[in-house]
């Protein structure tokens, strides 16, 4: 009887261990699936890394974060100094937290590092062979040289011209808060700092206060007729 009892206990322990192992395995697979969904990048995603002219790796997802960005496509040695100096000057005039400056270098010449050190650039210069960086944002080889991305990674303005006016206009467009009108009180609100939001028939509405949101949810049609 003791042997039967011991055998039964061992069998139960083995079955428990197998069941526990299967449960853990299932959890791992489920977790991996969620990670896969969460880490899948969109065409406008910042989840991309490039090598700089100094040889280190620049991760846009880590450095850019939620800030808007300017991707400035530098050409060869002929215009590198002039263009890069202009971007550096513009960069110095912009508050550090408002925009990230990135230069994408089409010409992978070894002279690029010399130019970068000489100008003491305050932004990374990335090698972009095959225009992979701009392609990440749905652009082609013929795309403009100055590309402005908003906080969501979407191109809000671009231009082939390289001058201060274009840079300033692009920076203003990229850093401008997304505006919306509260359908209840007609106040203009910042989408990113709105006090409340509400989805109705596939559209997101933004509100200056929870009071306005509550009025809207009670009778959306009343306010959408305005």
User: What's the CATH topology label of the largest domain?
Assistant: Glutaredoxin
Could you say how many structural domains there are in total?
3
- Biggest pleated sheet: 5 strands, mixed
Strand arrangement across the biggest beta sheet? 5-4-3-6-7
Rg for CA atoms: 27 Å
**What percent of residues adopt helix (DSSP H or I)?**
40-55%
Low-confidence blocks of residues: 13-43
Beta-strand content bin: 15-25%
Fourth-level CATH superfamily of the largest domain: Glutaredoxin
- Classified by CATH, the class of the largest domain is Alpha Beta
Instruction: Give the strand tally.
Output: 11
Distance between the termini: 85 Å
- Please, how many helices? 8
Determine the structural class based on helices, strands and strand pairing.
alpha+beta
